[in-house]
Amino acid sequence: MVSTSKLPVVLYHYDASPFATKVKNLLAIKRVPHLRVEVTTTLPRPDLAERLGVTYRRIPVLAIGKDVYCDSSLIAAALERRFPPAAGHPTLFPARKGGGKADTGMIKALCMTYADRALFPLAAENLPYRKFTPEFVNDRSAWLGKTIDPAALEANQPVVKSWLVSHLALLEEQLVDGREWLMDTETPGLADLTVHFSWAWMQQFRSLRELFDRARFPASIAWITRMSEYVAKVGSQQKNVLDNISGAQAAEIICASETEDPTIVGFDAVEAARLGLKQYQYVSVTPSDNGKIPTFGRLISLNHEEVAVETQGSAGTVYCHFPRLNFVVKPEAAGSAKL
């Protein structure tokens, strides 16, 4: 088995994606050299769907060797496990100052539920949809599972802004004691990175500039600035981006690589039985909130945190990993992948 440090790492992204920015920051903090493939902002994405059999529609997607990880929360967990501090990669879960312990479970929960699914959707409601092409608006309507009405979103902006002020007040309450990082850690960690990317993205919105009031939220604005400077500095100190390559090159590199030993993730037969699943049977994995396009494959691994299926594309097979939370795994008849 080849060590993780020798496996190729490939990030599928597009520059305007805030979640891709989040993962780029994770890769910078973890000091993980990687290749990049730029994909389109809207479907179809044949570099993933056709070449690798990964029909998951969200971006970013990260490959480590022949293992493909979907959803930024699972990408963070995979990076921490596969590029550990013992191998020279800084942790995403630093200890609290003063000799305290590291927090992990509740920080993962905070990132998945609060940062990604409470805070970020409010930020996204401020996108200027009137300025986008019909193709983009239709794509995002399909992603959300409902028609986007730019006029209705604009009419509701005062409510959304008021909610965002309440979120800034919570952030200020956390930071008002003068701590440097959100969880009072020695260095910034996953909590900082995951909460920061939404606020940093919102600072680019002209319609939201009034919210970033230094007189009202001095600790919060200082923390956002401090985090932006930190990730910029870390990124500038390293040459983590090895090259920008095509989807065809990436697929060839990934499929010629190796998978992680599936027993490391393991297979929880009890939980599988609860879901009516058996190892190696044909299944689908689908997000439960939005972007509900299933990915089909043979069930390889399943534990409390992730599920992996073997997918087949034109370039070969890969193990595609998803979080257990916010994803539904169902048995399927072979051949049902033809949508």
Describe this structure in words.
- A hairpin with a 2-residue loop joins β8 (306-313) and β9 (316-323).
- α1 (18-30) runs parallel beside α3.
- The protein has twelve helices and ten strands.
- The protein is 40% helix and 17% strand.
- The longest helix has 20 residues, at 105-124.
- The protein has helices spanning 18-30, 46-49, 72-82, 105-124, 134-144, 150-155, 157-175, 190-202, 218-237, 247-255, 262-265, 269-274; strands spanning 9-13, 34-38, 61-64, 67-70, 241-244, 282-287, 295-302, 306-313, 316-323, 327-331.
- The chain has a ten-stranded mixed sheet.
- It is α/β, with parallel strands linked by helices.
| Unreliable spans | none
Q: Roughly what is the average pLDDT, rounded to an integer?
A: 96
Q: Quickly count the helices.
A: 12
The helix/strand series, from N terminus to C terminus, equals: EHEHEEHHHHHHHEHHHEEEEE
The proportion of strand residues reads 15-25%
Cα distance, first to last residue?
36 Å
